[in-house]
Amino acid sequence: MKKVTLIGFIIMSLNSYAQTKSDLLNHLFENKLFREYEYVLKYDTLGINSDSLAYFKILNQLKLNQNAEIIKNFELADELIISDTSFYLKLNIHFLQLNDSIKRVWFDNKLKQLDDTISKQFKNLAKILLNEKFVDTNLIANELKDNYKEYEKFRSKKPIISSLFSAIIPGLGKLYNGRKYSFKNVGSSSKTVDRVNFFIT
């Protein structure tokens, strides 16, 4: 019985020690003691697990906009990051706002295997922003689906064709792009009506 109690005590002590290391890093980061925080990460003075170390490095790299480093460390800490929902959301929002090449690396390569709800939604958002063809409309909120369908119709139109139509008849390019009311406003001028009559006769 004494041995079991001793083993249990040792396990609890090790667990609380590991927790204390994470708490210390959280404390340093939250209190903006970044020099100390970076020193601990650089020299790994606490001897924390590789996934936890990568997680805390990414936390710091996000603050410093070190995108290549975040991408490099992500696989080591992906489970920890996904479990921290608010941080994972923040990380995805950060990459959504970057240029297309970095966005592609993050969403196409790094999140490729991840199938949780947040990853799916952000991968879908990235596809929309990158103008990719295959977007899962089931992941778009119902109140936004109609707007997205309108956007899809508009996106499929060719600017050169719109320009040619407008050159022939002012406003016809707007009609081609689905802007009926704009076409009516342009079409109400007498010159446009004359030109339409000229092409008809």
Task: Give your account of this protein's structure.
Helices cover 77% and strands 0% of the residues. By secondary structure, it is mostly helical. The chain has a domain at 159-192. The chain is elongated.
Task: Summarize the helices and strands and which ones pair or pack.
Blueprint: H1 2-30, H2 34-43, H3 50-63, H4 67-83, H5 85-96, H6 100-110, H7 117-129, H8 142-155, H9 159-168, H10 172-176, H11 180-187, H12 190-200
Helix pairs in contact: 3-4, 4-5, 4-6, 5-7, 6-7
Helix proportion of residues, in percent? over 70%
Number of strands: 0
Strand content: under 5%
Kindly name the structural category.
mainly alpha
The radius of gyration over CA amounts to: 28 Å
- Average of the residue pLDDT scores: 74
Low-confidence stretches at least 5 residues in length (pLDDT < 50)? 3-19, 196-201
Largest sheet: none
Tell me the distance between the termini: 105 Å
Q: How many individual helices?
A: 12
General shape: elongated
How do the helices and strands follow one another from N- to C-terminus?
HHHHHHHHHHHH
In short:
The chain has 201 residues and is an all-alpha fold.
List keywords for this structure.
single chain, 201 residues, 0% strand, elongated
